[in-house]
Design goal:
Elements (H helix, E strand, L loop, with lengths): L1 E3 L1 H20 L2 H19 L6 E6 L3 E3 L2 E10 L6 E8 L4 E4 L3 E4 L3 E10 L3 E13 L5 E7 L3 E6 L22 E17 L11 H7 L3 E9 L2 E7 L13 H18 L3 E7 L3 E7 L4 H10 L9 H8 L9 E4 L8 H10 L4 E6 L1 H8 L6 H19 L3 E5 L5 H8 L2
Parallel strand pairs: 3-11, 14-15, 14-17, 17-18, 18-19
Antiparallel strand pairs: 1-10, 2-4, 4-8, 5-7, 5-9, 6-8, 9-10, 9-11, 12-13, 15-16
Helix pairs in contact: 1-2, 4-5, 6-7
């Protein structure tokens, strides 16, 4: 596609004006001037650079939130006149961190680099590269697209924080390392006994040997693992707040952080995401489980009005006996919460509810306005949390002013 600029229109108007004046005034000088301007315009059009080859490569295709990606571009075109303008398209959810995705280069071979920052999880498209070829006088240009669209995968940020086992209810089984106080190959010390020829040398207690003169070995408590099921509220009502900080985003980041720690200790983790529909991922462990969970969390889009009650009913066949359940939800506009929690607790599932306060997120958006309805919503929410705690669930009220490190400290024991 060929385009012209206002400067080209000014040149054409000048040439036409001189031509008309030369005819009216019978002036050869004006005619020559008109022909010269027209010739310059046509000559400039023929000196457009050749169509360039543009390649854009990211140094990595998968990052976590708040990390940066470097994009390297290589431009190769024929010709020695004019200019090459390149513009690499970026998703609106990506931010320029260093440099610019718009550049101007002379014909030939050149390189251009810039760095983008990914503040929000998701699959963000980058590319293709738009190319404009300019003539030396900036009168004409031709546009084309080069390359293909690539997706930058941005996983939710994971925070380590304090580690331990998840606090659910007292006197119930807990996810994580559940110690049964019997001999095995764990890490917790149990007792000392005399050395036998079948014992490995790394279990010998050399301090006891120095004290008693007899070879003795350490014995350790055995450890076992369990399944953990997360229920994530991905309804549209949970999107209140900022794009990067709202109940849904906080729930996703907390789930990613807890899943990483639980899977690192050989537990199995499952997901139930409810919003537009109910999607169940069976508990699984192993080296690929975390990546699978991160992809599921990255693909979540807040939408729909499915309730916790319907998701619990749908997911019950996938819950193993006494499987601990972690519910990450703002609990807003869901009349089925109490029945769902009662059903889980009644079936013997230790239940932990981490609830980012959607009322306070909404209140922060209107901090300068005094609205009585927020007080009523706040009281209603507090009553709901007290009722859930009385049913046997453990409840963590997550205020917007508290960061994820605080939530991890409340969850981990």
């Amino acid at each position: 596609m060929r385009n012209h600029t206002l400067r080209a229109m000014a040149y054409a108007a000048s040439s036409l004006t001189l031509l008309v004046l030369s005819i009216v005034l019978s002036s050869e000088l004006l005619l020559v001037g008109s022909l010269i301007i027209g010739a310059i315009m046509m000559l400039s059009l023929t000196t457009l650079p050749g169509r360039p080859k543009v390649s854009a490569e990211m140094d990595r295709a998968q990052v976590f939130e708040e990390e940066t990606v470097r994009v390297d571009m290589e431009i190769d075109s024929r010709g020695s006149w004019g200019n090459i303008e390149v513009f690499h398209r970026l998703s609106p959810n990506l931010e320029l961190n260093k440099g610019s995705n718009l550049a101007l280069h002379p014909p030939g071979r050149s390189r251009h680099s810039f760095v983008v920052k990914a503040p929000l999880r998701g699959y963000h498209p980058t590319g293709p590269t738009l190319v404009r070829r300019w003539d030396p006088l900036w009168l004409w240009y031709r546009e084309s697209a080069s390359g293909e669209t690539q997706n930058l995968t941005v996983f939710p940020a994971m925070h380590q924080g304090r580690q331990g086992v998840v606090k659910v209810r007292q006197n119930l089984h807990r996810p994580g390392e559940m110690k049964f106080k019997r001999l095995g190959s764990g890490k917790e010390f149990h007792s000392i006994r005399d050395y036998t020829t079948t014992d490995p040398f790394n279990t010998i207690n050399w301090k006891a040997f120095a004290r008693t003169g007899k070879l003795q070995v350490n014995q350790y408590e055995t450890e076992t693992v369990t399944d953990v099921m997360f229920f994530i509220d991905a309804r549209l009502v949970g999107r209140v707040g900022l794009m990067t900080d709202n109940p849904v985003e906080r729930s996703i980041r907390l789930c990613a952080s807890l899943s990483s720690s639980l899977l690192s200790r050989s537990n199995r983790v499952g997901l139930v995401v409810y919003g537009r529909s109910v999607n169940v991922t069976k508990p699984k462990g192993g080296p690929g489980a975390l990546r699978s969970i991160l992809h599921i969390l990255t693909d979540i889009t807040p939408s729909g009005q499915d309730t916790l009650g319907s998701s619990v009913t749908y997911a019950l066949p996938y819950l193993s006996p006494n499987c601990p359940v972690l519910i990450l939800s703002s609990l807003a506009e869901d009349p089925t919460v109490k029945d769902a929690v009662k059903q889980l607790v009644g079936r013997g599932h230790p239940t932990l509810i981490v609830s980012p306060s959607g009322v306070d997120f909404e209140r922060m958006l209107y901090s300068d306005v005094s609205v009585p309805k927020y007080l009523l919503k706040k009281l209603s929410r507090e009553n709901l949390l007290m009722e859930l705690a009385s049913m046997g669930a453990r409840v963590v009220d997550w205020h917007p002013e508290k960061d994820i490190q605080w939530a991890l400290m409340e969850v981990w024991e």
